[in-house]
Amino acid sequence: MIRAFPVQIAPSMMCADVWQLAEQVRQLEQAGVDYLHFDVMDAHFVPNMPVGTVFLEQLRVHTEVPFDVHLMVDNNDFFVQLLAPIGVQSISVHAESAVHLDRTLGLIRSYGIKAGVALNPATPLSVLHYVTEQMDYVLIMTVNPGFAGQRMVPSAYRKIRDCRLFLEENGVEVPIQVDGNVSFDRIPHMVAAGADILVTGTSSVFHRDGTLLDNIARVRQAIAEGLRMRHHDSHQFA
């Protein structure tokens, strides 16, 4: 049975125009997005460092939209303890970098923050088996992490579908977040496969050919199409 989670939109702030940041956040609020998604990197786990925790701290006081943080770092616990006082609502950590994954998820939840497990494209779902009690969502990377604008990996739809089936077979009712090339054309297939939270970037919400409000309207149309596809045949994308 397919879990009945509303499909939510989480614009990736790494893709925002820093020069127009205040106005773009205002427009995202106006459009009713569900989260602002932040990629925090350390230039070690992935070779990039787009934003730091001070950026989140300064922005936090200017918006009430929930903050969703994706950690791509080696020392997860260090960053969790920096982020907690800022007032973020969810933090995902990579299974590949978490030496003690259960402990780190427990640390996140001890602050009243939702804890997610992020998986690189080649990481098997089996790593989730013994942390399901500690996780509030799963983040499926549909590109290799670190940079915006990459091509989606060929196995992405299959892995989203397999993750949904894994959760259902194990009686785990948590949403699936997807991150990487979440484009207008791909959103219907991702939603049909089981995606519940869409991290949207340069190929959708921040697409240069439309305004933010127009782009979000297109995302919602794509979600509606995906939900219709999911209802009719959620297993058609192998």
Main features:
238 residues; TIM Barrel; 8-stranded parallel sheet; 8 strands; alpha/beta
In short:
The chain is an alpha/beta fold.
Task: Describe what you observe in this structure.
The chain has 238 residues and is an alpha/beta fold. It has a single domain (8-232), classed as Aldolase class I (TIM Barrel, Alpha-Beta Barrel). The chain contains seven helices and eight strands. The chain has helices at residues 21-31, 53-60, 76-83, 101-110, 156-169, 187-193, 212-233, and strands at 8-11, 36-41, 67-72, 90-94, 114-119, 137-141, 176-179, 197-200. An eight-stranded parallel β-sheet has the order 1-8-7-6-5-4-3-2. Helix 1 packs across helix 7 (212-233). The chain starts with 7 loop residues before the first strand and ends in a 5-residue tail after the last helix.
